[in-house]
Q: What sequence folds into this?
């Protein structure tokens, strides 16, 4: 059983959590026990992993990277986490919904999918790298450019 401090607004609670099975837990809060199920609301996909439409020159990028083509856009991290796996490579054409990478956050593996059609211009992260919310992950060139 793990013990945690839960903060809600300005209130703090001490809770105990016991794993009952995949996504199922028993939580003890203020002497009462609750069986809870935690399910992801959605697989992190196009709704949360948006292409940034700002010009590539305004985005954070490695200093030695090649200039991005006109119309380039970035896939940014929808949450803080660790890159576990990269499923694309430079030059690869992707379609909306194709797997791009896996980001681990709070011990959950989140599949980040392509939010639109395009070509992978640059992969800006490596497996094992920790990224913060909004950090650039992959730069795309819009399809047909």
A:
């Amino acid at each position: 059983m793990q013990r945690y401090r839960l903060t809600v607004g300005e209130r703090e609670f001490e809770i105990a959590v016991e794993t009952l099975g995949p996504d199922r837990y028993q939580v003890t809060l203020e002497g009462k026990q609750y069986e809870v199920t935690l399910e992801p609301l959605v697989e992190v996909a196009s709704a949360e992993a948006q292409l940034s439409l700002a010009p590539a020159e305004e985005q954070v990028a490695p200093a030695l990277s090649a200039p991005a083509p006109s119309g380039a856009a970035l896939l940014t991290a929808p949450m803080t986490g660790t890159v576990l796996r990269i499923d694309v490579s430079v030059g690869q054409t992707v379609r909306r919904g194709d797997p791009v990478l896996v980001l681990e956050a709070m011990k959950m593996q989140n599949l980040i999918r392509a939010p639109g059609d395009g070509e992978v211009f640059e992969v800006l992260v490596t497996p094992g790298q920790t990224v913060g919310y909004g950090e650039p992950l992959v730069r795309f060139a819009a399809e047909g450019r």
Summary: The radius of gyration is 19 Å. Confidence is low (pLDDT under 50) at residues 42-70. Residues 51-142 form a domain with the OB fold (Dihydrolipoamide Acetyltransferase, E2P) fold (CATH 2.40.50.100).
